[in-house]
Design goal:
heterodimer; A: alpha/beta; seven-stranded mixed beta sheet; six-stranded mixed β-barrel; 31% helix; globular; B: two-stranded antiparallel sheet; two-stranded antiparallel ribbon; 8 strands; 18% strand
């Protein structure tokens, strides 16, 4: 029995944990902890990491290409050969392109695939003449990317993990790392709090396992975080708690911001968010006078129709206090998946070129066109949620989905399902028959993360290599190989002349300047990888903004922010605020985690949290079935009566069917849908 | 002094990585995380008692202590009479319904044989689980305070310093 240990990057969240897969003759037997290398997780893993090999050999794995024979959504397919599948896809894409133009085609990339695969996907879309290429970042981080981009010029995490250990105050805003990133929480945040005495401020409507450690816990109504952020800015400015030298030397627009912020007093915020004004004041003073601070945000901030504004206001708090560019500080948003950041950097965006340069950045466009040998289409593409409208309007005819599950991730799912029923041609390339794949015309079996070599970029901006640790089942192939096969069939073979992933990574090194140094050789020799930007093989950049910000002037832009309500607020008909959260044992739409035995056993079903006073008023007891209804639909949950959620708010985990309830109102800057706040009514299901 | 798994309640976030890691090693989780309404949580496993009631109760001597002090079960001797389960003040040994013999934590004997730590301790992301000698574990936890006191004590009277603080 030949047993070998293969080093891999964890396929779930974006901390960038490393461990080994124990491989027995090509078969994944179990995982082993990596204490020998300089790993960011110090060998530690969360339950998803420990169970990471379980879904690999699940009987549901797709093994051969499938062609639909039943109705869309029914899930009836017959097996076909790779040759037939690729021929059919290429033929149909060519036909639709000729008939309706290239903008009738759209491609969805994936934060669960490697940077190489996302790079090849967006290149294929562009070679076919369309910028309609997107991935789920639109629904996770896009507001953060837009907001921080405007203020600082770069959305990435500013400092290495170790810096959080030196922070005097930590603010976790709309972020529950104890459930979403337990290893990052345990190895860095918890140590900073319990061992080094850092103060913790948590902003979350729920009292979470993270909030258990908080000195100050602010519980705003979902989506009213912007009011709290504006009020904190107000306190920092009116009480002159900001760093005057820093503001004078390294920022622009302070006067305008100070003028705008005057009306947003803590007392005003109390009325909007339900958070006592004194608590906001206390939090602002604690934050501004700490000396060093870490401010981390996540979906609680991002996934709102006012998300970009909230991110801007929160980032401006960090700027005003002069916390950037130092040791012991940290600022960033945490992508959901292990390659959330990497996929975006590869140009999987309708307005972006590889390297996240804007589509209209002529100099970069020319450079990339020269490297590729073909023209990048001029017309910007459409964003993720807008694709659904485009399908329903008959503008979008074909959608190619790689490793993602929009039929569970999109808001207002009923509408999304309608779109998937009506699209002319849908291809899904994944490891399981996802909810989306059930609507597909052709389903292609992909190799899972451990079944291929690939590179991922963690939220620390760290580029790391993962290695092939198991054989793919049946005829499943790595995503990049499938895309290259398709490109060749489409007659675009000359632009996709790759024989392995290293060829793709070398092209990425040539095309994206700040990844030039992340060569296959460097990443194979140094498992801990390197932090981008890495312009050559010797350098990396642990801290951002040490000398200047990445805006055109090098100064942070203090853009005034005005208050805007979330996409939907309660009224008489729908009196409750509804929001969602994540469970430590599940991941995204559950494609992988619902098929991991150890995880689904421990976190078997959804439930809804209701405040004990609300429950009493409605006659709901713990364990009762409750009907939760919004203007889009209704779901039945088991009630969990608890004091840990504020009155007037109910919350359920989102990994199941939650998005039948959410609204597709969009953020005006980032087109982020309103995924975390909705108005709902609840009633006990009798009998 | 024998080595054991110690639990730091303050650090546990109920992520259940220990349970899953144990399940991966043994098929069933032999450690369990209990959650309480006030958000505290406790990961709980066999204490490997110095004077182990399970060992004393076992009529066929299926339970014994190994060289590291772990109470381990010999599956060939066990008759599944449940006496150890009854005797254990923590209710740790459980019946393995399939094999009709008992099942309990052995501090990952196979991992220790290779010089590795028990799987639950290896995984625990917050280091709420610690494997070692109690003096070492206590020293690691309290050492800073003790060192500080000692430092003050060197200069003044320890008791006096303690009262002042």
């Amino acid at each position: 029995m030949a047993e070998k240990l293969v080093p891999v990057v964890c396929p779930w969240c974006s901390v960038g944990c490393r461990f080994y897969i124990v491989n027995v003759n090509g078969y994944p037997k179990k995982i082993e902890f990596d204490y020998d290398h300089e790993t960011r997780n110090h060998g530690k893993l969360c339950p998803k990491g420990v169970a990471a090999f379980q879904y690999l050999r699940h009987p549901d794995r797709l093994k051969r290409p499938l062609k639909r024979v039943g109705e869309r959504g029914e899930g009836k397919f017959v097996e076909i050969s790779w040759e037939e599948a690729i021929k059919e896809i290429a033929g149909k894409l060519r036909e639709l392109k000729e008939k309706y133009g290239p903008e009738a085609l759209a491609f969805l990339g994936s934060e669960r695939c490697s940077i190489e695969e996302n790079y090849v996907l967006q290149k294929l879309a562009r070679a076919l003449g369309t910028n309609n290429v997107e991935y789920v970042c639109r629904m996770c981080q896009s507001t953060s990317v837009a907001g921080k981009g405007m203020v600082l010029g770069h959305p990435g995490l500013t400092n290495p993990f170790e810096d959080i250990l030196k922070a005097k105050v930590i603010v976790l805003w709309g972020y529950n790392p104890a459930a979403t990133n337990p290893v990052f929480f345990g190895q860095y945040i918890e140590k900073a709090i319990l061992d080094n005495g850092a103060k913790l401020i948590v902003v979350d409507p729920r009292k979470t396992k993270t909030a258990k450690y908080a000195d100050i816990h602010i519980q705003p109504y979902p989506g009213t975080d912007l009011a709290v952020a504006l009020a904190m800015l107000n306190v920092i400015i009116t009480e002159e708690l900001y760093d005057k030298d820093f503001v004078a030397e390294r920022t622009e627009g302070f006067e305008e911001l100070a003028k705008t912020i005057k009306k947003y007093t803590p007392e005003w915020a109390e009325k909007v968010s339900g958070v006592p004004a004194e608590l906001i004041r206390k939090a602002a003073i604690t934050f501004a006078t700490a000396g060093t601070a870490a401010l981390l945000t996540n979906e609680g901030v991002n996934q709102h129709a006012n998300g970009t504004r909230t991110v801007m206001a929160i980032t401006e708090m960090m700027v005003l206090c002069g916390y950037f560019g130092k040791e012991g500080v940290m600022s960033g948003a945490i992508p959901g998946a292990h390659n959330g950041m990497g996929a975006g950097l590869m140009g999987v965006g309708p307005h972006e070129l590889p390297g996240r340069f804007p589509l209209h950045a002529e100099e970069h466009k020319r450079r990339i066109e020269e490297a590729w040998g073909f023209k990048i289409p001029e017309k910007p593409g459409i964003t993720y949620v807008e694709m659904i409208d485009a399908i329903l309007e008959g503008k979008l005819k074909a959608l190619y989905v790689m490793g993602t599950n929009p039929a569970r991730a999109l808001p207002n799912l009923k509408k999304a399902e309608e779109a998937f029923k009506n699209i002319e041609f849908l291809v899904v390339q994944d490891i399981f028959l996802t909810e989306t794949a059930k609507y597909a015309d052709i389903v292609l079996p992909a190799a899972a993360w451990f079944e291929k070599d690939g590179t991922a970029i963690s939220f620390e901006r760290r580029v790391q290599r993962s290695f092939k640790a198991a054989d793919a089942p049946g005829e499943a192939k790595p995503d990049w190989e499938i895309l290259v096969m398709l490109a060749r069939e489409l007659g675009l073979g000359e632009y996709f002349n790759y024989s392995d992933v290293d060829d793709v990574l070398r092209e990425i090194n040539r095309t994206i300047p700040f990844l030039t140094g992340a060569t296959p050789e460097r990443l194979k020799n140094k498992l801990s990888g390197c932090m981008i930007p890495c312009p050559d093989e010797e350098t990396e950049t642990p801290r951002l903004f040490v000398d200047g910000f990445l805006t055109p002037s090098g100064k942070a832009q203090l853009i005034p922010v005005e208050y805007k309500e979330p996409g939907e607020v309660p009224d008489e008909e729908y009196p409750f605020w509804l929001t969602n959260y994540r469970l430590v044992g599940h991941f995204h739409t559950g494609t992988m985690s619902h098929r991991s035995k150890s995880l689904s056993k421990r976190w078997p079903e959804e439930y809804i949290e209701i405040n004990e006073n609300d429950a009493k008023r409605l006659g709901i007891k713990d364990g009762d079935l409750v009907r939760v209804e919004t203007r889009r639909g209704a779901l039945v949950f088991k009630a969990r009566v608890t004091p840990h959620i504020r009155e007037g708010v109910v919350a359920a985990p989102w990994h199941w069917d939650f998005n039948y309830l959410t609204k597709d109102a969009l953020d005006e800057y980032a087109k982020m849908p309103e995924l975390k706040a909705a108005a709902c009514r609840i009633s006990k299901v009798e009998g | 002094m024998s080595k054991k798994i110690f639990i730091d309640f303050k650090r546990c976030i109920a992520c259940k990585a220990c349970e899953v890691a144990c399940e991966m090693e043994h098929g069933e989780a032999r450690i369990r995380v209990f959650e309480f309404p006030d958000l505290t949580s406790v990961a709980f496993n066999c204490r490997h008692c110095e004077k182990a009631p399970c060992m004393e109760a076992c009529p066929v001597n299926a339970l014994s202590k190994d060289e590291d002090g772990a109470v381990v079960l010999d599956p060939l001797k066990c008759i599944g009479c449940l006496m150890c389960g009854l005797a254990c003040p923590f209710g740790i040994p459980k019946i393995d319904e399939y094999n009709k013999i008992m099942d309990k934590c052995d501090l990952c004997a196979h991992r220790r044989a290779d010089g590795r730590m028990p799987a639950c301790v290896s995984a625990c992301p917050t280091e709420a689980l610690k494997y070692g000698d109690i003096n070492d574990v206590l020293w690691a936890r309290e050492g800073k305070i003790v060192a500080e006191l000692k430092d003050i004590g060197d200069r003044t009277n320890v008791l006096e310093a303690y009262i002042i603080r």
